[in-house]
Prior knowledge:
By secondary structure, the chain is mostly helical. It is built from 17 helices and no strands.
Amino acid sequence: MILDKKDDVRFLPVFMGATAGVMLEVIATLVDETVVGNLFTDDAFAAVNLIEPYTILEVFIAYLASVAGAALIVRAHGAGDYKKMSELFSQTIIVCGLCGISLTLIYVIFTPQLVRFVADDPAVYENALSYFQVMRFYPLVDMFDTFMFAYVLYRGGYLQFYIGIILRIGVNVLLSWQLGLRMGLMGIGLASIISLIVALIVKLTFLINSKHGLKFVWYLNIREVIEIAKLGFSESAISLFIVIMELALNNFTLKNYGVSGVAAVAVVINIFEFTFYLSEGISEYEIVSVNDSIGKNSSRSMDRAIKITKRAAFIEGMVLAGLIFIAAEVLPEAFDIDNEETARLAAFMLRILAPTTFFICFTRITAIFYQYTRRILRTLILFGMAIALMPIIFGVTLGQISSIGVAAGIALGPVAAVAIMFGYVRYKKKEKLFDYSLMNLGL
């Protein structure tokens, strides 16, 4: 167990677990689309992707309901308050159940209307409806799985964590193909739910050990639930900022540089997003160590946690910069860019993006630090500037010169965001960027 009350949180197990988890989650998400692409028509592939906004909404709500709750359980553990740990654990389970049931009921009651809203075209409507008939029940399982994903990782259950994710991918690959052949798109959706149930059961075995399991009590404090949701909102909003940035820059590029320009810029946007998601390995360590330090009210522990976090962000940023720069020539092929001129353009754009990966990682850790020291507005502003506002402003401005300017604007986004936040905190608020003074924040 990594969270012994007297010990500091170890970096490598949390970092490796979270990083592998993110990568495996991406693979698991791609399984459905890959199988659909091989078994069915392009219309069916399009239909599955059109339903994606409802999946994003479900993930957004799951994060609001559970991830901050898991972090506060760590904080209570650091304080040695096992009663509060049980209350937070039980409350999160109840909230996940209520959210899952409520969202599923909305999806079931308004199924035709919701499908028509995103797929109001005869060519894709029936396929989208078939897939959604099953996927509308996904929140019933995924709400709990999202919480257990965070809880098991934060408490050190790496064996269950890895086995659960690997089984999810394996079962999904096997069943998607078999059920897809027999049931069509409904089978693809059913395979996703079954594989998620298997993964959840594996994670639940972590609770069998009395050291890890917590006593369930009927506890629900609405005011506290709202506070936890507010605490988790800024991290959940990452997906919303990404959608805004994609819509704005893809629309601008399409109007000014056509489909080939969009294809090249899309490669840059995807690598930008991937870097942001991959930095979760560092931020998950930060979440555990910072909340543990706050619970202990230990400035020494906090100082150590932030030093390790900053050092890890620098190393990962530099490694990712090197990998992107070296792999720039082949990455466009990975995104099926066949046109040689477009591929060369995308490769040049990726080399412009590469040096800024450190700032992407640094944005993530700074924003997370503010999130869990209750400077939520700073977190939202920093994420909003780095992911959406600054890339759009710089991308549209520099994009007036050439399509390469759009990529340069995306790269400048996190650099400008970190610079602005540093200037505000240092010269306006007269603080250090990572102010350790806010320690005993309570729950």
